[in-house]
From TrEMBL:
Superkingdom of origin organism: Eukaryota
Annotated signal peptide: 1-21
Gene3D superfamilies cross-referenced by the UniProt entry: 2.40.10.500, TolB, C-terminal domain (2.120.10.30)
Name by which UniProt lists this protein: NHL repeat containing protein
Protein source organism: Adineta steineri
Taxonomic path: Eukaryota, Metazoa, Spiralia, Gnathifera, Rotifera
Biased composition (Low complexity): 44-53
InterPro entries: 6-blade_b-propeller_TolB-like, NHL_repeat, TRIM-NHL_E3_ligases
Coiled coil: none
Start and end residues of each stretch annotated as Disordered: 25-53
Amino acid sequence: MCIIFTIIVLVIIITVPIVTAKTKKTNSEKTSITEEMEVTTEPTTTTSTTTSTTISTTSSTTISTTSSTTISTTSSTTISTTSSTTISTTTTINPCTTGNYVWNTSGITILDSSQVTHVVDIYIDSNNTLYITDEIASTVVWRLLKNATSATAIAGIKDSKGSSNTQLDHPQGVYVDTNGTMYVSDHYNHRVQKYINGSNSGITIAGLSESRGSSLNQLNGPRYITLDPTQAYIYIVDSYNHRIMRYSTNSTSGNNGTVVAGGNTIISLNQPWGLWYQPSVSSDFFITNYLGHSVIRWTPGASSSTFIAGVPGTTGSNSTLLNNPMGIKLDKYLNMFVVDQNNHRVQMFCANSRTGITIAGTGVSGGTPTTLNGPRGIAFDSNMNMYITDFGNKRVQKFLKL
């Protein structure tokens, strides 16, 4: 609101000349004029209102012999509120279904027969360190650091198989937990060994050393192994008992385990070999059925399973058949990678598909960069480069992700 007061006072004295604006007055004269102004004031008021986005006050006063006073006030208030909510959803596309899952078909040999013999399983930790079981004649577990060219034996005694706590006899599966504790299935000793803090002396946590059997405290030819995400339990492929066993990772020799798959007849599991289990992706077990030439999906607690790759009991080399599958891995999309041992190749099955795509090997045995000879194990590093234990060629092959 703006209020303007204008006061105009005219004082005329006949006997005295009119004083111009330049005439100087004393303080007493100014007081007299002021008193006269108070008598003859005729007020005039003007009001205006302006609204804008600012608040300002302007005041000015002018006094002369003809006195004029102007007071101007501008007041405005603006309230502005902006509210915005954005919801963003990102949908990931399975690269297998778009044809973007491709690896170089020519492998790079990272370990050869000058260092290793018949390599079996392979595990890669979060630092891209490789752990490789060497069945015979080495009978050890190798460790190959990232970008290294020479491996070190960290469990077992090279070329000396046995059943002591420092020896192994045809080691098969290997797994390393986040604490660096390593677990190894010792096939012909019918046990699983645990190595703590880099020790080369194993502790038997499952099975009875050199005592095969089918009781809950025994194993018979254990193959590949895995741990659950809590690292509280280890799952063991008890091959000749046609079952999957679960033990506490803190068990000791002779403790009873729990049957979590198979164990009834060989109709469901027939000498299983490989195992994948990751509850954050799927609550089911995925098992390679070596003599069943198939892959089985088994829900824990169920009495039977579902065949998801291959035809049970039928060997073959086309895209829907397998021949003695061994190693197995799945990704977060449930795309499945199967080492098809007797077809000398690696097959990729996109999620929910029973048609395999050959991503390594040619289906014919060979020792060239593009061929394999009885491969057994498979693993992926953090960049999805693929590593295969090429058993018959006594080497480890790396296939770069394209």
